[in-house]
Amino acid sequence: MADIDFSNWPKIGQGSERSCYQDPDNPMRVVKVSPIENAKQTLREIEYFQHLIKNKVPFDHIPLYYGSFKKDGIIGIIQEMIPTTPGSTEPAQRLREFLDSKPTEEEIAELHRALAKLKDYLMKWDIVLCDLQISNVVIQYTPDGMRLVILDGLGATELIPLSRWFRNICHQKTTRHWKKFCRKITRRNGNVTF
Known about the structure:
By secondary structure, this protein is α+β, with helices and mostly antiparallel strands. It has 5 helices and 8 strands, in the order βββαβββααββαα.
């Protein structure tokens, strides 16, 4: 991967620290690229994904992690591209866009079910959150219903990551992030209430 020039790949996302490109030869993979001098989030996520793999945590609501690379002053993460539906190559819709699309009552009810599954996953597997945003969550439509996937904002930002070592601290932190996340959802679309 280090010798592939992805500068002409389709860009499917842009954040404050990094850009995300879809591999044209394997559309189910993306690379998230940061300049090495501004790669705090990327380095944190690489370390955290390795921790999840070591602890056999399923990536049910997180894109699969395929590794990382460094080259020419950049560092990147190779991950699964989450498509709109299984088998599609079109990137999934962001939760923010879904909320802005005037969803029906039925779609809102389905979103509530998907949110409950996401929260259960976070708590069951002690997933450490640092920045849960509606722009960092995408919606995939599967035969089993709506699936929410967190693209960014994982891992501990603290110097001493107690939330990684103590379950009750992790759950307290997740609960705080979750309440803020739900408030953001309701502010974005007043029909989605908790």
